[in-house]
């Protein structure tokens, strides 16, 4: 009698069937994680576009109305960067906020609460981009 038949211990037996089920489950989990990552990238792109637009508008207004120079801007960027965390790394640390709808902690960088879907209370102004 062959050991390769259905239900046997060889190739095509229960062990192989279980392995295939686990592989399929792992593949579904990986696909779900990839989908989540893609959604996160889209959210980050929206934030980046908003920040770029807000900064461009602010810089345009400031130059027109005050005559502030590029050197002054760069000096202030350095000052704020160092004041944030003592490290000149070209970025501000992200802060956690409390969702006004469900009370859970959410990232200030997310457009919506990941628990209840409530919009980020930071609004659509400059703070929403930070
Ligand atoms: Zn919430």
The number of strands is 2
- Terminus-to-terminus distance: 70 Å
Query: Structural class, please?
Result: mainly alpha
* Average pLDDT score: 84
Instruction: List cofactors, ions and other ligands.
Output: zinc ion
* Rg for CA atoms: 26 Å
Please characterize this protein's 3D structure:
It is a single chain. The chain is mainly α and 130 residues long. The protein has a domain of 37 residues. The protein is 56% helix and 5% strand. It has three helices and two strands. A hairpin with a 6-residue loop joins strand 1 and strand 2. The protein is elongated, with a radius of gyration of 26 Å.
Topology:
Blueprint lengths: L13 H53 L3 H16 L10 E3 L6 E3 L18 H4 L1
Antiparallel strand pairs: 1-2
The structure holds zinc ion.
Which labels suit this protein?
2 strands, about 130 residues, mainly alpha, about 55% helix, about 5% strand, two-stranded antiparallel ribbon, disordered N terminus, binds zinc ion
Characterize this entry briefly.
The protein has 130 residues and is mainly α. Helices cover 56% and strands 5% of the residues. Residues 99, 101-102, 104, 113, 115-116, 118 line the site of zinc ion.
